Amino acid sequence: MRTLAIRSENGKVTEEVVLEGNVFDNVKKIATKALEEWADSSDFYIMRDFHELRKKMPLDPKTYEALNKFLDRREGNEAVIKIPMYIISFENVWMENNFQDRRIYLIVPYLDEELRQELREMAIEATSEDQGMNEEESKSYNS
After folding, report:
1. Which residues have C-beta within 8 Å of that of residue 49, sequence separation ≥ 6?
2. Where in the sequence is the domain holding 123, given as residue range(s)?
3. Domain for residue 117, yes or no?
């Protein structure tokens, strides 16, 4: 099994690696690395969630083998896949009622380049300055 780890800082991907091994073991290794950079001015957390994606059926044998353990259900001519996704946040701030991640790692089982691109965009959005703020709050924060 391979693991995709994407590091995003202030709305930019700054590191992206595919690691060999179990996702959970890699999360622990990356968390240890992130702890070394963590400052006590922010929270440190690891959150597990699930990311859902869809693939047209039928799946070729190689794709089926890679996705088999993550297959959730079938809807029409699509396979619905749910993969575990871990977010390690090690620099973040509270701004009034909004929480803003500034530096994170997003970690998932590596499946394919399509998923990699989708998760790059998620990581960028998660750490972009305007994430979680409405337009007025963003203007006042940036002024």
Report:
1. 84, 85, 86, 87
2. 2-45+85-142
3. yes
Strand, coil or helix: what is 100? strand
Tens of pLDDT along 58-100?
988 988 888 899 999 999 999 999 999 999 999 999 888 888 9
In angstroms, the Cα distances linking 15 to 29, 129, 138 are 15, 19, 27
**Residue 75 within a domain:** no
For the chain, give the mean pLDDT.
90
Number of domains in the chain: 1
CA distance 6 to 18: 9
Establish if 36 belongs to a structural domain. yes
What is the model's pTM? 0.85
Q: What is the DSSP letter of 40?
A: T
Q: Is 18 a domain residue? A: yes
| Residues 107, 85 contacting (CB under 8 angstroms) | yes
Closest CA to 92 of 13, 22, 37: 37
DSSP state, residue 89:
E
Whole-number pLDDT of residue 62: 85
